[in-house]
Write a structure and sequence with these properties.
Radius of gyration: 31 Å
Strand content: 35-45%
Structural class: alpha+beta
Largest sheet: 4 strands, antiparallel
Length: 237
């Protein structure tokens, strides 16, 4: 009997505690909270050129195609490394792959392959001149981007713009809803870069029309936009 009384008392205590917790949860639920976001944008000249050189080969057997690609890539690497300079002209290999070619009966009739070499850096003249001296791998794609240093310079400016706009919008919303001000609850900061895509067709045509010896392909960088977005919530007071 005593045990039964104790069990009933303990259950009552738990129910009472649960009711108090529920009331506290309801009373502490945030009110007058607004979600908002703002962004800052800075336009900057792209200072990084990325040229992709490629060679495509085909033949009756995989070993022969691989040997041709390797020969073309070795020759291109040797020439490119002569002019390499850290930050100004960096050289790296791209994808290297072999693929079977099938006949109508579903059997393998031959092999084809492709190898790529990437020239990247801030010295546009050096990069394009080097590419013009590599006949074994013509230019297949060109792209522009921002170097890490250039991006860092403008990212802080875009962030300041975004923060100021966030604060101004929060103050405007608080005033519009009849509050004297606001306090910051939580915030997230994100950045990204918006730039035009690569222009492979036009550059490939120019490279084909130009002489292969020391011919620098004409390139011109555009501008990129560094965008920083500040989003979060504020408590209106």
């Amino acid at each position: 009997m005593k045990n039964a009384i104790r069990l009933i008392a303990a259950s009552a205590l738990m129910i009472s505690a649960g009711a108090v917790f529920s009331q506290n949860s309801q009373t502490t639920e945030p009110r007058n909270v607004v979600q908002l976001s703002a962004s800052g944008t800075v336009e900057v000249q792209q200072d990084l050129l990325v040229l992709t050189l490629s060679a495509s080969k085909d033949g009756p057997d995989a070993a022969g195609v691989q040997a041709q690609l390797k020969q073309a890539l070795d020759a291109a690497l040797a020439e490119a490394k002569l002019n390499a300079q850290t930050g100004q002209l960096d050289v790296r290999t791209g994808p290297f792959g072999l693929y079977p070619r099938y006949a109508k009966d579903g059997k393998i009739s031959g092999w084809q392959g492709r190898a790529e070499l990437v020239l990247e850096g801030r010295d546009f003249a050096r990069i394009t001149a080097t590419a013009g001296r590599i006949p074994s791998m013509p230019i297949s794609q060109v792209a522009f981007a921002l170097s890490r240093e250039a991006r860092a310079k403008v990212e802080a400016e875009a962030q300041t713009q975004a923060i100021e706009q966030f604060k101004a919008r929060a103050a405007e919303l608080a005033k519009g809803f009849g509050f004297a001000g606001y306090s910051l609850r939580e915030v997230a900061v994100n950045s990204n870069e918006m730039s035009p895509g690569p222009r492979p067709r036009m550059v490939a045509m120019e490279a084909k029309a130009a002489p292969l010896s020391d011919a620098a392909v004409p390139v011109e960088a555009g501008k990129a936009q560094v965008v920083v977005t500040v989003s979060g919530s504020v408590q209106m007071r």
